[in-house]
User: Fold these one by one.
Assistant:
Number 1:
Amino acid sequence: MGYRKEDAGATSRRTAEVKRVLWIILFLNVAVAAGKFFYGLFIDSVSMQADGFHSMFDGTSNVIGLVGMSFAARPADRGHPYGHGKYETYASAIIGAMLLMAAWKIGSAAVGKLFAGVAEPPRVDATAFAVMAVTLLVNIFVAWYERRKGLALQSDILVADASHTGSDILVSSGVLVGLCFVKLGMPLADPIIALLVVAAILWSAWGVFGKVNRTFSDSAILPVGQVCGIAERVEGVLGCHSIRTRGPSAQIHIDLHIQVDPELTVAAGHAIAEEVEEALCEGISGVVDVIAHLEPWDEYQQSKTQKQGF
């Protein structure tokens, strides 16, 4: 037994949509990075240059996402019977690592400034504030748009990348506030704010790695009650237990045991199991493969269900 959702068209459409979002975000990230970096050079603002460099990390993560999606879109084969969906999770892990790199770079620079002091403050002007404000608004839009599309498409890579862009919003906000304090004659405010931003970036990285760990460690993806509820609505199912779910959000696999009347023929029991498999695969978003193990509803099997509470 076993039911697998074979919808190459839907998979292809999802992959194409994720890639389209990544291309849009890549273009915006490059524009934002260039604006901050080159104007930072012009006014000799190290914080603006660092922020532009950090934004370039966002563009790099978009490229990683595009490469990861190209691998993840490959169909299941003999060497990868569960498909290639975890390549998307690999790309998410790389983005998490890039967040750590960004935190280290910004944090080390901030600590260096605190201990060495600021020899020459940057030439902060109205244009600097305008550049930071405009790029900040672009980043806010990017993070909102990418997270919304990531949730709609059940794409771990888009959600992770949105977290990365979210860290850029924090960095830009910190730089903007720091420029205000520099303008008021307090240049050391810049590295102090940068350290607070580093803490926020590390929090974002923690969230990304949490989702990566959930997939790689085969943590349960779906509530047991949800799976059992759908299974027991199929006529002929008297109980279920040993429900296991795993995989990334867009490629969930389910294994479960269902119990039926022991007087049924093998063919009748098999038909019920197939109906359960199809109901779960079609009824829960992201489920692509279900295997139902058939058991008779006798005293021993009833004790399994009662012990597990579902």
Number 2:
Amino acid sequence: MIKLWRKILDTGSEGDVVTARSRLEFAADAYSAIYAVGDVHGSYIELLNAECRILQDASSRDGRKLIVMLGDYVDRGPCSRQVVEHLMRPLAPQIDRVSLCGNHDDAFCHFLEDPSGGRRWLDFGAAATLYSYGLDIDHALQKAGGFAGLSSHLAQAVPAAHYDWFKSLPVMLKVGQFLFAHAGVKPATPLDAQTDEDLMWIREPFLSRGPEMPYTVVHGHTPTDSVTFGKNRIGVDTAAYASGHLSVVRIADGHTDLV
């Protein structure tokens, strides 16, 4: 069983309705193994290496398998466009993939929609992302006469299909007792009350307290030297763009192991 829902937020004095990113739920027995992959950040070669490890491991297991990408596909590393194009392609038979939205991915979306309003993305290592799309931000701003004229340059550089893919990314996945989100969850807060900002940006108090709910949360967002097992949480971001290693955690047969 696959469940899909969208969180509807009522905001603004005029009652404007804003639809948040989608959240997914799969049946606990839908997959024989789940592979959670940490933050990629433009590290295309490291992504291919991680997938090779996953495919080799998955080949010895019956049934369907699921790869959960934990977000932050762009920025910092040199190959954001190649990473996105790769993740947009289908995988091998019997393997599904869910790519969750990270805060860097969401900020990229906002910048494409409104370069001036979303300009804080440029502080996140965004120049590497735009360069991977063939755009030098300083030159483009000069040519466009500032942020107001940048939209047409972005539209030419970034394919509409890529923007649509980023907009479609869900922000949370629940499979049985496991929750997958880019950053984590707000402790002791019902799932339907978790905001997109919580799920994509939170660090404390989640990192020290854990979810304080009957789930194990698998997340990225906070880089560590190795995969971290905390209070009912597993942190999988090992800064692939700097360390050269994209970490993968396998959940299968009641066990959690590194791949």
Number 3:
Amino acid sequence: MSHQFFFNPYILDNLALPSRGFDVVQDVSEPRLRMYITSRGVKTFFVRKRIKGRDRRVIIGKYPDMDIEDARSAVANVLADAMKKTPVKRKKILFRDFVQMYLKNRVHRTVGTYDKLVRSIDRHLKSLFDKNVSDITVDDIKNTIETIDGAAIAERMYELLASVFRYAIDTGYVKNNPVTGVAKPTQNRRVRPLTKYGLRRLVDAIKDYSDPTVRAAFLMLVYGFAPKTRVFSMQWEDLDFNRYTWGDMPLSDMAIVVLRDLPQDGYWVFPGRGHGHLTDPRLAWARVVENAGIPNLTMDDVYKFMMRRLNWAGDREDLRNNMNDLLDELVNIE
């Protein structure tokens, strides 16, 4: 249940931020008006309404760009607009063209992940491209999903198609979602094998590795609270040992100890072969995790394990303290 109080600038400006995710608060003056508060300090007005059996949350605007009174006044109009029936368009549109419209209006990703999504669509949903959106049937969806190799990819394409056709309903191109008539593919998700005691064994195995560059890079997977691609591409110019920062992120004490022992005689902190940085030392990682007794552990598992346990804070110094506390708890196990 959301916390209720009378919205005013003083209270909203001084709301405590959640440690992770978001909180919801509700206005007493206009009970239909609510606000998201994220762990990064973003505050957004919204309303909730059940439409056609689905709980919808309609964004009104961000605070303080939108005034509180303007948000209250907008509630009635926003709800009225949300309840209007979308007129069904008689003009037909090919699935290929509709997907382009969906990507433009509903998908907000970085360039790399956006391009990856487009490649997946071109590869797995090509059989639907020359069909009109309104003519696609349950059997068309079923046949398309069944031709995809790999349960994980099939599940993602299923969810994407469901989202595309929900957008088609919202824009009036179809009346019903054919994806709902197809059973969702299931996959056996891999259980991540890392525990805090396994992390201690992993750190010990990394410290025993002979190559100093790879050893330091692997330790930074634990101490740096960053994914492997960012760790391996670390640059000296982004590090500030006086302020204990790495770009916009703080550095833990253990990370600083590791980095200060490295020779600062190049562009990359972890140089690879040739003129580039370390990329994917999978053979070295395989030896390390085997020595640690966790043969199925991936480098991404380490990052996700650490970030799930990190108590996020908007203040850089608070976040740095939380990093140090977590490492003391997990790594320095007696």
Number 4:
Amino acid sequence: MRHLLDTRTLSRDDALRILDVAEDMRDTQSREVKKLPTLRGKTVVNLFFEDSTRTRISFEAAAKRLSADVINFSAKGSSVSKGESLQDTAQTLQAMGADAVVIRHGASGAPHTLATSGWISAGVLNAGDGTHEHPTQALLDAFTIRKRFFGDDSRGRDLAGFHVAIVGDILHSRVARSNVWLLTTLGARVTLVAPPTLVPQDVSAWPVTISYDLDQAIASAPDAVMMLRIQLERMNAAYFPTEREYSRRWGLDAARMGSLPTASIVMHPGPMNRGLEISADAADSPRSTVLEQVANGVSVRMAALYLLLAGERPTTHPQEEAR
């Protein structure tokens, strides 16, 4: 695997390879010594042009647990804030000998530009670009669904026959886009639920069903309900009347939780707006996978870095390397 830029072009086999290697990585994290020597001598740069806490820390933990050297680069207070271009930054990283660059950028397509420009020879991993994609979030979501439903028998399994409802601010969500493509590739059926104002203008090419009614979507008995954060910081217009009205019509509360099938799970990529898109009852329910998603994110990002920098999955499993 040379780069990981999106899930739209990720094949089923490649997606399953990442998820299965993530299973191996997760197994190593239950050991007393969690660190593996796999990427010793490699340098991973976290290049974040947008604020992030969860994703950056998750990638940093993943790289360090694989024994890579990690450089955290924040655009604030750097030469970027003084007008340095992406090209200049990339060439600086090339001169420093970066082996992999994890990039989050406000412009859709920036990771693809970095990967194909010739400015840098490092592998590029998209940690979120504009409203385009966030591939490792979708991978950790799929990993979490597999783990909840299949347990230790997850390896090699896709999500054929599963129904996932993605609810909320679809318009501004790169998480939603990455999940639509990955879940569909893995065989799941996807329903998008949102106010009409928060659905992108043209989704005719998306392999999804659109619903504007959360109660109707819940009545269709989804296996997983993925609540999205209302991205107020990206909104410069009124997309819904009031927050109270949004919560009443599209928020997941205790009553709607009670209408879900008993086996259904509740997901959220975080950070959560409690009381807006999700109630405390739903967020803290045993059905909620929010904290599992955070933990699984480290394993999935370890797998992505491992495949990016150590080549194809070897015959020796990562947990054997730790011995």
